[in-house]
Amino acid sequence: MPAVTAGTLDGSATFSDLMAATLFSKVWDAHTVRVLPTGQTQLFVGLHLVHEVTSPQAFDMLRLRGLRVAFPERTVATVDHIVPTDSQERPFRDAMAEEMLSALERNCAEFGIRLHTLGSAAQGIVHVIGPELGLTQPGTTIACGDSHTSTHGAFGAIAFGIGTSQVRDVLASQCLALDPLKVRRIDVDGVLGPGVTAKDVVLEIIRRIGVNGGAGYAYEYGGSAVEAMSMEERMTLCNMSIEGAARAGYVNPDETTFAYLEGRPFAPQGDAWPVAVARWRSLASDAAAAYDDRFRLDAADIEPNVTWGINPGQSVPVSGRVPRAADVPDGERASVAEALDYMGFSGGEQIAGTRIDVAFIGSCTNGRLSDLRAAAEVARGRRVAPHVKALVVPGSVAVKAAAEREGLDDVFRAACFEWRSAGCSMCLAMNPDRLEGRQVCASSSNRNFKGRQGSPTGRTLLMSPAMVAAAAVAGEVVDVRTALAPAEGTR
Amino acid sequence: MSRIDRIRGTGLPLRGDDVDTDRIIPARYLKAVTFEGLGEHAFEDDRIALAGAHPFDSPRFAGATILLVNRNFGCGSSREHAPQALYRRSLRAVVGEGFSEIFFGNSVALGLPCVTVSRDDAAALQELVEREPATELVVDLEAQRLTAGAFEAAVTMPAAARDAFITGRWDGLNLLLDRFEDVRAVAQRLEGQ
């Protein structure tokens, strides 16, 4: 279908604008229903993903107004936030969690929505199962009542996290009222060093552009380092766009994207496959597309990153030091001082050597098979430090099964990591997995906010899965590239 | 829906950049299937940590309806529970240097206007209200002005949201359902690809 830029709406586009467009504007235009009297765009949502936490009130609002779900076939639900990852027997020990899952099951049955509930082979974190099932496809718009919906942008989709009233809107109309975003092209050029991952890239981007730097933007990630990434790495990258305030982030679809999708249950099959691929290819940003802003990074400059503070922008390279409040610009001093105080740092210390109590590998950011493989490679033949509690939580039932086929569960168990069932787990602690007191957690998740991992005084250090595994073994933050001597029998 | 064009009340200063929605309402309170009762848990962990010294617990600001914040307020999780908790604590407007887009949209949907002021004005307002908590603030969405006694500041809000409040059409679902044949047409076009 022909691409029309957003500029045509106000008649100001030039001929060359019409010819060269970003993926964002092509997808936006293809899904535009109309410009509302408010000036916002009524945007059609190709795929609506639903989970148990942000949907019950939305279904109640539909009932209150006597509305139905407009396109149930474009709506898919699963359960992830509240599920226990140890015993998954029903009813759950937590009566509120049980009620919440029961409500989702009831709502999906009543409104005719496909639900991958607990016990299903397709259950898992909503941002893990969408891609796994082939539901997430290039060139579509995706919405979910979860800020990490930006994950799906890895496929060249435009994916928005929304609130519960908007979940209601999408259920009832399959549409959102939105203002178009600007597009910032972020190029990561060169080759990432060994032990440097997509997680480190996105932490680097957030530190440099700021936790508020993406406001009003979608991030288009490109450059040779991004092109070389697997789909799972691209998902990690896009997942944390929102931590830099970019509501959406995406990578243009390419051969890596198509190879990942081919043959997945909901991907186009047979004759429809080559047609879809040709269309998806045409949706990638044109070489001459104009961007509202550009940002460039050298892959070679990026080290494994570790957060020291209370937002994902407060990170340092693992070789670096925690900042001193006195050394930062005036406007940041209060925030840095608050973060140092909460985290128990005085400022100026090396981040490496920070003692940890808990290690968590999982989440929609880093709970996929390649993440578990990277962590297992570090864990193999080693043992979690005696004072550390270490958890590995696969992102989905399918990830768990695939990892077990490779024997990763045995590697983790032998190294004294707990091997759990799929769910959001300790990323946000809406389930029994949580920090206690002032515990420090090396975590492969996405947020180090105060209290995020379930203890109001708990402390989170974000890092890549391999770095978490290394910290678990060492009992403190270490540079995974150098700090661990080769384990016996692995070299 | 009712028109919201002018919000009048005393202020509640809450200092700090990048206040995330986990802090506004901790995740453990998201396990309920309704928004009822969230108000009492707003900023619960911060309030416990400050043992009574949190502005939400200060008798000086009791009855305040206008929250005064700084940069990137409401960042992080998309939970609508966050503005719901503030609204259910009787707050009726938020004035700050900037808001997370998702938080802003969620607030519009429940009739809680968030208006932006300059960094200097945000600081001046917080100081003013800390000094004189009884000062009446008036946020005028139509005139895009905020007054607090002799103090005046320009406030901004994206045009679509501002119009929605002023005209009383801030519940946008009807608008999305207005021309459903257009929605069906887009769906059919996309399916035909």
| Widest β-sheet, arrangement of strands of chain B | 1-6-7-8
Helix segment tally of chain A: 17
The whole-number mean of residue pLDDT values of chain A reads 95
Number of E-state strands of chain B = 8
Radius of gyration of chain B: 18 Å
Named CATH architecture of chain B: Alpha-Beta Barrel
CATH class of chain B: Alpha Beta
Q: Report helical residue fraction of chain B.
A: 25-40%
Can you say what the CATH homologous superfamily of chain B is?
A: Aconitase, domain 4
The average pLDDT score of chain B comes to 96
Describe this structure in words.
The complex is a heterodimer of chains A (491) and B (193). Chain A folds into two domains: 1-303, Aconitase, domain 3 (2-Layer Sandwich); 304-474, Aconitase, domain 3 (2-Layer Sandwich). Chain A is built from 17 helices and 19 strands. Residues 1-11 of chain A have low confidence and may be disordered. Chain A has 491 residues and is of the alpha/beta class. In chain A, the strands form five sheets. Chain A has a five-stranded parallel beta sheet. A five-stranded parallel beta sheet of chain A has the order 17-16-15-18-19. In chain A, strands 11-10-9-12 form a four-stranded parallel beta sheet. Chain A is 32% helix and 16% strand. Chain A is globular and about 55 Å long. In chain A, a hairpin with a 7-residue loop joins strand 13 (305-307) and strand 14 (315-317). The longest helix of chain A has 17 residues, at 95-111. In chain A, helix 3 crosses helix 6 (164-173). Chain B is an alpha/beta fold and 193 residues long. Chain B has a single domain, classed as Aconitase, domain 4, CATH 3.20.19.10. In chain B, strands 1-6-7-8 form a four-stranded antiparallel beta sheet, covered by helices on one side. In chain B, strand 3 (66-68), helix 3 (81-87) and strand 4 form a beta-alpha-beta unit. The termini of chain B are far apart. Chains A and B meet through strand 1, helix 3, helix 4, helix 6 and strand 8 of A and helix 2, helix 4, helix 6, helix 7 and helix 8 of B.
